[in-house]
Amino acid sequence: MVAMSDITGSGDEKKVPQGLRPDGSPYRVLVVDDSMFIAKQLSQIFTSEGFEVLGTAADGAQGLDRYKEMHPRVDLVTMDITMPVMDGVTALEKILEFDKNARVIMVSALGKEDVVKKCLLSGAKSYIVKPLDRRKVLERVVTILSR
User: What separation, in Å, do the N-terminal and C-terminal C-alpha atoms of the chain show?
Assistant: First the structure.
């Protein structure tokens, strides 16, 4: 007969949050999106896994400024593509001009495959499709951070 604890586990194993480096310090993220809802959703996904959200920005120009202010403390940027003032493609290019090692993941609505491809060719490390899927967001982010 199988004991219930064999199926569920003893409960003693602690799951290590995905937002922590091997030394236990958090990876630091900048979220750039003009949708307050998406910015908040991404921030919640990150903080729930131990990431430190250094800040958010509502357009590409703000995102570029925040990145420059926070450099070199930023480990990763999530960048929406369609935003007012400065779009995500331009902001990506300008961040990479400033720091060629920047890790930027584009956030895109469905149907923007051509723009996403341009971003990847310009130096974006990956992309996330809206609506956000928590598991996929974390999967992509962790993959990029572990490279």
Answer: 44
Label residue 35 exposed, middle or buried (CB < 10 Å: 0-12, 13-18, 19+): middle
Supply 131's token pair: 């609506």
- Alpha-carbon gap, residue 18 to 88, rounded angstroms: 26
| Residue 6 confidence (pLDDT) above 50 | no
What domains can be seen in the chain, in order of their start residue?
Answer: 25-145 (3.40.50.2300)
Dihedral angle of Cα 44, 46, 51, 54, to the nearest 10 degrees: -70
Q: Find the helix or strand (DSSP H, E) in which 24 lies.
A: none
Predicted TM-score (pTM) of this structure: 0.89
Helix (H, G, I), strand (E, B) or coil at 54: strand
